[in-house]
Amino acid sequence: MIELLLLILVIVMVGLNSRTGKRVAALERELEAIKAALRQQAITLPSPVEAFSTGTAAGALQDRPASPVELAAREAAEAEAPLAAVAEDVGTGHETVVPGPALKPAAQAKTRENLESYLGARWPVWVGGVALAFGGIFLVRYSIEAGLLGPAARLTLAGIFGLLLLAAGEIVRRRAMPQMSERFSNAMIPGALTAAGAVTLLGAIYAAYGIYEFIGPASAFVLLALVSFATIALSLLHGQALAGLGLLASLLTPGLVATEEPNANALFIFLGLTWLAVNAASRFRRWTVVPMLANIGVGLWAVAYVAGSDAFDPLPPVLALIVMIAGTGFFWPGSRYEAGASARTGWRSLLLRPPLKIMLSIAIMTMLPALVMVLCHAEGAGMVLFGFAAIMATLAALGASRIHAVWPAIIAAAGSILGITITALTWYDYVPQSVLPTPADGQPAQALTFTNEITVYLLLGAVFTLLGFAFLRRFRRPEPEFSIVWAFLMPAVPVALAFISFLNFGNLGRDWTHGLYGLGLGLALLAGAEWLFRQGGDTTEDGTGPSVDWPANLLVAGSFAGFTLALHALTNGIVTTILVSVLGFAYLLAMRAKPWPALPWMMAAATLIVFGRIAWEPTLIGPNSLGATPFFNALLPGYGIPTLLAIVSAWLLRDSPDFRVRNLMQALASLAALMTIAVLVRHAMNGGVLDSRVPTLGEQSIYTLVTVGFSGILMTLDLQRPSPIFRFGSMIAGVIATINVLSLHLFALNPYFSGENTGRWPFFNLLLIGYLLPALAYGLVAFYARGRRPMPYVAMLAVAGAVLGFLWATLSVRRFWQGDNIADWKGFLQGETYTYSVVWLLIGVALLALGSKLDAKSLRLASAGLVLIAVVKVFLIDMSNLEGILRALSFIGLGAVLIGIGLFYQRILVNRSAPSAPVDSPADSQGTTS
């Protein structure tokens, strides 16, 4: 069945090639006719010298319209020159540039092919090559099954057949027309024949080794390698597909030739030579797919070796990967790509710069084996980590030396941080405790063990800083986006690596190694920022002024990060928290000498770092060292000094043209002040303990008072100096306080539900601080917010205050009848029930009078609501629970109050209508008065 299919394919190929040959012959005849016409025209027309010497003749030649024969001759001459140059290029393997307008760009020279071109010129070529390869394989199989020849003869015939195919490919290539070589460069018949011959030879060599054992592993390895390299070399003549075949054969050769004692050095030397050969050929012919496949193949071999080896030697794969990275920088210097990249700007252009496939593959396929190395062989001590750092540093150097290597720079930074993190988290588990050195002079054993590792961490970070300076020195002006990337990486990577090293292997008390490293890094980056600012930044697109110099400002931020690292390494506890805020404030004060935009942002960053430290350890010095003295304890300077500096910073930035940092500092200062007061209150109300216990009503009441007061303070600041932070911050504080009232004061912490004792004093008790004082605070803020804040917000404050006041009065009545404990399990007394009605009605009347005096409709509505509640209570509760005189007095009192309220409203309505009534009639005037 297979033989029949191959026969059909051959017949189809012969038919299609016959038809193609006829068309080529017709094109040759047309070309010869055009050449003859061109020669005849050259004889009849005068020479250029004669044309310029005779003005009349020249004018006549310019004015005379060209004949169709002349036009055809000119077009043929224009088309013949580049085709001849291409033919010479294909024959010699050199790149040829044809000057003048006759040579069009490659993208314009290619014409769209139809279905006939694909079916007749491309598909049969490669199918025919595959058929020839299968034919050789089936021929050997047939000889084996029929027993015609011995193994040696079969292999000899297979080798001869492969060599004949290679020779046929060369013969056809030399006799092929240049037009066919250029148009069908990916489906050339010589390439297909050469590929079939290479596959046949590879199969014969492997059969001689793996099946018949005629040759040993070393001989088989050498022969397979020679055929693979020869295939790669022939790809210069036959195209990229043949190079891919040679690459595939080279990558499979080490796996096909297996030995009992594999040699890692020989393996990676061979892979390195294969990679160099493929990239040399690809650079010569400007291929990008085959180099990408070579990067992937060698990277996967390195991963397989690292993950599958018990006795791991990191030197061979590390050297091979470094050769790949350095070779990429050498083979792809980018003279062609840099010219195009410099003309295109923008982040999208930066991330998609060619040769994108090569840069992405080299970055990923060198980082991946390095990560597998530190993940699978953490017991390899310093050699593994040193090899990992060498790979990442070399990859970063590639990213700093080529403007199209942005991905190697980014992936090197990410891989360095990820690999060092993996190492730091797993290293100590792999180190046997028996190998730990004996402590000397009280020095911890861990510090002695990890000295080399710390050195590698810090040196790898320093490499990124030096590479960043080198890149900025060369490419800062022509590459603004890439400069931003390096200005971010050069401080971010060393600081991240140093922090990881310090937290895992450093002395958390005082570490001079990491401290001095952070100090030196901060000074170096600060000097770099000064250098960049002195050079001056770029201008805006419209040319009206300087734009933001991002590289210089990022170096300022990096210097702050370096100094922060030094503070964490050289100090601890509350001292670190205070000094971080002092450092940020120093950067802010530096604006008086250096108008750098990044300086005030460092104060905001310092405040955020202080918040983070507080979230990590709220006591700042440890819960056992805090003490129980209210207010005057370590919390006051630990929270107070950063808060004070934040407030002063916000005040200094009140006129800053950068409204973003101004608003941010106002928000951070406000939050820091509120947090400081809350923590001090928490410490004082809980006997010097800061924990997550549920607050009492008294403590929560203080928080509510602070929040409401904070809302009023922000409102005042907004009125003096309008700011969205103050405006929205005041309303957010009011909303938060109201939520606490509705959830905690009303239900969760209510002494009626919680059973908390209210105290022995009749008036100065828990109900005063828990309900009456917050009610008064809400009332004052609501009154202050009238006309200054949206009406719904003012109404919310007023309602919250009214609810708190109502609860104070109601719970005070219950305390009067029930004593200190007003829990719900005590039930209700008849006198208590009656008193509620009286108090509610009195409050309603008082609110009505106050609302009338202040002309406050909200108070009058609150009065009506409270009276309605009293009415409902009298009719539903008092009628059923009260007896005797109390029931009668309840209804009598309710009726009297309601009648009085009605009379009051009637009088108000009559007085309001008096000005609009006529006053001429004495009767009307008397009636109005009465």
Automatic annotation (TrEMBL):
Q: Which domain of life is it from?
A: Bacteria
Transmembrane as a keyword of this entry, yes or no, is: yes
Coiled coil feature spans: 17-44
Is Transmembrane one of the keywords UniProt gives this record? yes
Q: Which UniProt keywords apply?
A: Coiled coil, Membrane, Transmembrane, Transmembrane helix
Transmembrane parts of this sequence: 123-140, 152-169, 189-209, 221-252, 264-282, 289-308, 314-335, 356-375, 381-398, 405-428, 454-472, 484-503, 573-591, 598-616, 631-652, 664-681, 701-719, 731-749, 761-781, 793-813, 833-852, 859-879, 885-905
In terms of InterPro entries, this protein maps to:
DUF2339_TM (IPR019286), UCP035905_mem (IPR014600)
Q: What is this protein called?
A: DUF2339 domain-containing protein
